[in-house]
Write a structure and sequence with these properties.
binds (2E,4E)-2-amino-6-oxohexa-2,4-dienoic acid; binds nicotinamide-adenine-dinucleotide; Aldehyde Dehydrogenase, Chain A, domain 2; alpha/beta; single chain; Aldehyde Dehydrogenase, Chain A, domain 1; 2 domains
């Protein structure tokens, strides 16, 4: 792990004087110092990206660009364990998650979009006007331009590459900023790009903070053509204002307050295990996590007891131990945010079924940012704890009686990212799924991904879809050409 994380601009690693610290939330220790990009570095990165676009990259034959995507994937694969170590050091996540989800998805993102671009389609129409004139209309697809990509800390490698890979594959040049809380895997990716000899300026990495810093310099930059952003809904709103004057394209993957609905006819054990996963994966720090669990009344008490037992068996441990299930929260600041919701839940009348405290280890982890996996019951649907995204290891379980009621309560949210439905009644499963006001619905599973499918949310959860052809559409422009025959 480098002790200093630098920018990567126009094919060069760039050091700047202003720095911030990257802290390991496992124990509060310093991972690295990180250079913070000022307006000058962002200007340089945008200029380099524009030159790369106007050079060979944007016009490169698709098959050749696809090869670059696979070379990047090969480069990550060759340094697999370094990427794992980077993810673990920045976030304290269990190594088994980094090895099975985060780094493999980083590789898969480049391979997938490298292959997909070979199938990019255009349209063609034969036209006859009322006066008998004939013409052929066809579209050509072009790169969108210079893309600003801004990603969050919760799945650093997965989400950073989820933007960089399709943007590059479609022939764009990119200025990308990882979260200030988890910059190490993006820095390693820059090293991979450098080592494989990716043309200068195609991929530019700038490190820094958000508002009033690097993030804002990017979104308000006149040389940026589009912004792809994943993060909090409130930040999305700030970015919309910043891009408004330039009328830039945006793709937003934002927050969630997702519901899981468990019907009495569900396979009980699978539903309990599914909700355990959907509530506590990555210590609850996944935008898709179920923070609101609705369970049909006949199985409610049994479900709460079973989930409590399994939650209490989750191992909060050292990241490198293969049997660790739960790591820390990303930072002291985020830990305090989650704890403030624990306090609020008590004020709002919650029963704490389990958890609700900071665990005590008696070792260096006590300097980290931990909270216990927590289950609440007894809150009214109007409680702030059920309306605002906590983004921690916590879910609330409420009973419901009818399908109609479950649908209405699940949809009663300002967010609309994901929902999970647990039932063995196939007709009900489809009917309820189609009525969910969410971009993603899982039936009898959770976070099972196919990269060809549209990914994104409605309402406060986002704008647009990425994944498969939706990414190809966002990261390209089409021009219609009309030829008189
Ligand atoms: P955040 O919005 O605080 O930060 C995300 C990124 O935006 C960071 O790189 C940050 O530096 C930058 N940023 C912050 N303010 C900015 C500004 N004014 N201008 C430009 N850039 C700015 O989010 P976070 O705390 O890193 O991530 C957690 C949030 O992300 C949660 O709300 C979660 O639900 C959401 N999320 C959504 C998805 C999805 O696919 N929908 C995926 C992951 C995370
Ligand atoms: O799997 C993905 O493609 C994706 N965008 C996941 C987002 C997870 C949110 O935390």
């Amino acid at each position: 792990m480098p002790s200093l994380i630098r920018h990567y601009i126009n094919g060069q690693f760039v050091e700047t004087e202003k720095r911030f610290q990257n802290i390991n939330p496992l124990n509060g220790r310093l991972v690295s110092e990180v250079c913070e990009a000022s307006q000058a570095e962002v200007d340089a990165a945008v200029k380099a990206a524009r030159a790369a676009m106007d050079g060979s990259w944007g016009r490169m034959p698709v098959a050749e660009r696809a090869q670059w995507m696979h070379r990047i994937a090969d480069g990550i694969e060759a340094r697999f364990e370094e990427f794992v170590a980077a993810e673990v050091a920045d976030t304290g996540r269990p190594v088994k998650q980094a090895r099975t989800l985060d780094v493999p998805r980083g590789i898969a993102n480049f391979r997938f979009f490298g292959d997909l671009i070979k199938t990019a389609h255009t349209e063609c129409f034969e036209t006859t006007t009322a006066s008998g004139d004939r013409a052929l209309n066809y579209t050509v697809r072009k790169p969108l331009g210079v893309i600003a990509a801004i990603s969050p800390w919760n799945l650093p490698m997965l989400l950073f590459s989820w933007k960089v890979a399709p943007a590059l594959a479609m022939g764009n040049a990119i200025v990308a900023k990882p979260s200030e809380e988890a910059p190490s895997s993006a820095a390693l990716l820059a090293q991979v790009m450098h080592d494989i000899g990716l043309p200068a300026g195609v991929f530019n990495l700038v490190n820094g903070l958000g508002g009033g810093s690097t993030g804002e310099f990017m979104t308000s930059h006149p040389g940026i053509d589009a912004v792809t952003f994943t993060g909090e809904s409130r930040t999305g709103s700030h970015i919309m204002k910043a891009v408004a004057d330039g009328v830039k394209d945006i793709s937003f993957e934002l927050g969630g307050k997702n519901a899981a609905i468990v019907f009495a006819d569900a396979d009980f054990d699978k539903a309990v295990d599914g909700v355990l996963r959907s509530s506590f994966t990555n210590s609850g720090q996944v935008c898709l996590c179920s923070e609101r669990v609705l369970v049909q009344r006949p199985i409610f008490e049994r479900f709460v007891a079973a989930l409590k037992e399994k939650t209490e068996a989750l191992r909060l441990g050292w990241p490198m131990d293969e049997d660790t299930d739960i790591g820390p929260q990303i930072s002291k600041e985020h830990q305090q945010k989650v704890l403030s919701y624990f306090e609020l839940a008590r004020e709002e009348g919650a029963t704490v079924v389990t958890g609700g405290q900071v665990p005590v280890f008696g070792d260096e982890r006590d300097q980290g940012s931990w909270v216990q996996p927590t289950i609440w019951t007894g809150l009214p649907d109007s409680a702030r704890c059920l309306r605002e995204e906590v983004f921690g290891p916590v879910c609330h379980i409420a009973p419901f009686d009818t399908e109609e009621e479950a649908v209405a309560r699940a949809n009663d949210s300002a967010y609309g990212l994901a929902a999970a439905i647990w039932t063995q009644d196939i007709t009900r499963a489809h009917n309820v799924a189609q009525r969910m006001r969410a971009g993603l619905v899982w039936i009898n599973t959770w976070y099972l991904r196919d990269l060809r499918t549209p990914f994104g949310g409605v309402r406060l959860s986002g704008i647009g879809r990425e994944g498969g052809r939706h990414s190809m559409d966002f990261y390209s422009e089409t021009t219609n050409i009309c030829v008189k025959l």
